[in-house]
Structure prediction request, 74 residues.
Amino acid sequence: MDDTLRRKIQTLLDQHRTMRIATLRADGWPQVTTVGYANEGFTIYFPAAPTARRRRTSRGTSACRWRSMTIRRR
Prediction:
């Protein structure tokens, strides 16, 4: 990826806070969900309960690694 494209993508990520996650269900039907997100560079964080369909249908996708986080209020 060249630097111009990298900067354009980074600008889009930094200017917005919602995105759409698209996956395929087990029956092959597409599933699209709008979620809020936060990012650090090209790493994107968004909420997904362990039982959420978007989490189940994206397992096995090399571009998606799931990590559990706990957010506590101060």
The mean pLDDT is 79.
